[in-house]
Design goal:
By secondary structure, the protein is an alpha+beta fold. It is built from seven helices and ten strands. The protein folds into two domains: about 100 residues, 2-Layer Sandwich (Uridine Diphospho-n-acetylenolpyruvylglucosamine Reductase, domain 2); about 130 residues, Uridine Diphospho-n-acetylenolpyruvylglucosamine Reductase, domain 3, CATH 3.30.465.10. It has a four-stranded mixed sheet. A hairpin with a 4-residue loop joins strand 5 and strand 6. The N and C termini lie far apart (about 70 Å).
């Protein structure tokens, strides 16, 4: 690649990131920013990559803005939910990281036993809301794990033997494709997509980011105290069943 071509591409990236910064509800953090070292860090300290920029999404529409910037610049994209992935898939060298960690709203519909989960929510976020109603979702073991990645990866935890994997309890998913299309996937709506998300996760790596809505079947059970890759997750529009946990 010629120096002229490299300089032209760098100027185009700088312009695209400048425009992206103006569209975001959240923040765009580059290497020169004081928060960069913190923003690029993931749970596995052995993963030491330096992205071109980190976007901390402040609202769901930020996802669309980031996807547009990625398409324009050709930068590699890494999506971070809870940031707990041991392989470091929540970051990328020289690319753009979309950090969804601030989008963690969990809403429990106790009367109908349904719950919605935003893409950055962790197990702790879900437990905190469901426990108020003596309800729980069959998730994992470590409170800081992101619900999205855990669920689409299977989701083995304290309640697996009684209630199945987290993925077994997935009711529906709202996604935004890499081309910006917004889709709802469930058993009776885009069923092949839903099957792919639930049974063939590897087919979607690099093509999809997700928002799972698991169904609960028991109550608080021995998890640690609260502590805390594409298509992209859209927002809390998925509903899941919850069953009460009997007090003892």
């Amino acid at each position: 690649m010629s120096t002229v071509h490299e300089n032209t591409r760098e100027l185009a990236i700088q312009q695209a990131l400048h425009e992206l910064r103006g569209k975001l509800s959240g923040s765009l953090i580059e290497p020169r920013d004081p928060l960069y070292e913190e923003a690029r860090r993931v749970w596995n300290g052995m993963v030491d990559l330096r992205p071109r920029a980190v976007v901390r999404a402040g609202a769901l529409p930020d996802i669309d803005a980031v996807l547009d910037a990625v398409r324009r610049t050709g930068l590699a994209l890494a999506v971070r939910g809870g940031g707990h992935n041991v392989a470091g898939h929540g970051t990328v060298d020289g690319g753009l990281v979309l950090d969804l960690g601030q989008l963690k709203r969990v809403q429990v519909y106790a009367g109908s036993k349904l719950v919605t989960v935003e893409p950055g929510a962790t197990l702790a976020d879900v437990d905190r809301e469901t426990a108020v109603h003596n309800l729980a979702v069959p998730l994992g073991v470590i409170s800081g794990t992101g619900v999205a990645g855990l669920t689409l990866g299977g989701g083995v935890g304290w309640l697996t033997r009684s209630s199945g994997l987290s993925l077994d309890n997935l009711e529906c998913v709202d996604i935004v494709t890499a081309t910006g299309e917004h889709l709802h996937a469930a058993a009776h709506e885009n069923p092949e997509l839903f099957w792919g998300l639930r049974r063939r996760r590897k087919l979607w790596r690099g093509d999809v980011l997700y928002l799972p809505c698991p169904r609960a079947a028991a109550g608080p059970a021995g998890r640690e105290p609260v502590l805390p890759a594409g298509t992209l997750a859209r927002g809390p529009a998925c509903l899941c069943r919850l069953d009460p946990w009997p007090a003892r």
